[in-house]
Specification:
Layout (H helix, E strand, L loop, with lengths): L1 H34 L3 H4 L1 H13 L1 H4 L6 H12 L3 H13 L2 H26 L2 E2 L5 E2 L2 H7 L4 H35 L3 H16 L2 H30 L4 H13 L8 H17 L6 H5 L7 H30 L11 H13 L3 H31 L3 H18 L5 H41 L24 H7 L2
Antiparallel strand pairs: 1-2
Amino acid sequence: MLEQLDNVINQVNGFLWSYVLIVLLIGIGLYFTVRTKFVQIIYIKEMFRVLTHGIKSNKKDGAQGISSFQAFCISTASRVGVGNIAGIAIAITLGGPGAIFWMWVIALVGAATGFVESTLAQIYKVPFRKGGYHGGPAYYIANVLKQPAVAALFAVLITVTFALSYNSVQSNTIASSLKDAYDFDPIITGLVLCILTSMVIFGGAHRIAKVTQFLVPFMAIAYFIVAFIILAKNITAFPAMLGSIFYQAFCPDAAIGGGFAAVIMTGIKRGLFSNEAGEGSVPNAAACAVTSHPVKQGLIQALGVFVDTLFICSASAVIVLLSGQYDLTNPDYTGIALVQGSLKSQLGDWVVYFMSFTITLFAFSSIIGNYYYGEININYLTSSPVVMTIFRIFVVFMVFFGSYASLSVVWDLADLFMALLALTNLYAIVRLGKYAFFALRNYYAQKNAGIMEPKFKASLMDNQDGVYAWGNEEKWLKDHE
């Protein structure tokens, strides 16, 4: 019975992800790219400037909420996981080096979608009575589109998908990795993970923000250093590697089943799964930032797409391609095993321990980020502290459960929920996109007028339905006493 259910879920997932969502995500990404006048390319310098400013003003901005940089770290913690390591190896095995090129292309397109959804989340965020903000798709679907039932469905789906299902998968990955490297008992690993997870999530948003702002840069830098060492060792082969990526993007190796179409589809799928642009997850973190203008957080989260795909995923591609260990005729030698084999061939046996450490960091940071998305949406559904406590207990239990359970059905079901989330969010941001475009025009009108740090005035919008921040906080608090 369970196997039959898994087969049905797989068939539905295959149809949704291979046809419906890919067409929608690419089409909508191109639409947003044109409407924002290529914001993800033209304004990339501003993205880094705003992020740098967010780091410098971290302490000041975080007084009553979390800073722009902390929101960036939370979303990156969730977005960057084991898939950025194993997923790239799988993409190369199935689609060859050319799949990396199409992964880069979809990141460029997806960054525009990431900008729009995160800008909307900022415009329509709502205040906490104790200070700070929360928001995301559930909030702009309910408060602006006036569809509370759809918003509630979204909140339930994202909570179950990220905070429960995906966290089970992440803890399972950590336990498996530590079992292989150190022969740790998965039960003991699960108990330790439960303790660490509890220490973070019961500490609230500020503790989550502090942990992720440390973990994310640390794990990224450690991984980049290893990739750079391999690049330096094989620098003479680097031009040939780049040439192979570009050449095989259009003229794939004969060993690739499905040919040109398979290369494109593999790269696009890997890019979409990795950067999460349009899926409705990242806006939950983006809404929580304290900033002077919604566009600032939109730009920072667009940069997050680049960090995820162009930086971290590309580091994995460098490791696999320069090592020469991949074999298109052997599809079984892929994933984490291929990455470990590639690293061992270049750096020695000690790399097994490094990979275990890296996987643990990536997966644990994802547990924290995924939980936070659930917390935001539980807050949408109810303000009861009892419900929040019960939810946190469930999260800790699922982390423990995932450390030793077989999760194939759970993972497939989570992918189905994610598809439904994406469809719901894409529908909403297409309808509301014009307000993100307005905010972008307003931001650069102020920049062109010589204002270094633009400030947003909601009163300039022709429709202020659902705007409960930007000077309207008292209205929200009064209506929700």
